[in-house]
Design brief:
This protein is an alpha+beta fold and about 140 residues long. About 25% of the residues lie in helices and about 25% in strands. It is built from 2 helices and 6 strands; from the N terminus they run βββαβαββ. It has a 6-stranded mixed β-sheet with strand order 1-2-3-6-4-5, with helices on one face. β4, α2 and β5 form a beta-alpha-beta unit.
């Protein structure tokens, strides 16, 4: 049985509560929900701009994925949480640009989008991920 390992990086925001940035167990990597937070200052960025928040959030997810030994190509699932249906098209465009630029080949990760409340009023988007590392 493989050991469960916490994934940590200074290239993504430190978790504010009692959870890991990510966890790897064998080939599986789970990234905790990330928001549009600057990893250096821990400030929430781009108030009111869901496109910029989506890109910053995906950069945080990517940093944790890479800290686990995986690449963005190893991501099999992304879950996007939005506070407003009105932001879906804008998020989807920014998301598509980022995922397209960071995925090789023609197989994109699966995705679910959920509309919900988020922990901070300035958060318009939160994203978590699952990756599977080969080898």
């Amino acid at each position: 049985m493989s050991e469960k390992i916490a994934v940590r990086t200074t290239d993504a925001p430190a978790p504010a509560h009692t959870f890991s940035q990510g966890v790897r167990k064998g080939p599986f990597v789970q990234v905790s929900g990330q928001g549009p937070v600057d990893p250096v200052t821990n400030e929430y960025l781009y108030p009111g701009d869901v496109a910029a928040q989506t890109i910053r959030t995906l950069r945080n997810v990517q940093a944790i994925i890479e800290a686990s030994g995986a690449t963005f190509d190893d991501v099999v699932m992304l879950r996007v949480y939005l506070t407003s249906r009105d932001d879906f098209a804008t998020m989807n465009e920014a998301y598509g640009e980022f995922v397209g630029a960071n995925t090789t080949g023609d197989v994109l990760p699966c995705r679910t989008t959920v509309f919900t409340g988020l922990p901070r009023a300035e958060m318009l988007v939160e994203i978590d991920a699952v990756a599977i590392v080969e080898g």
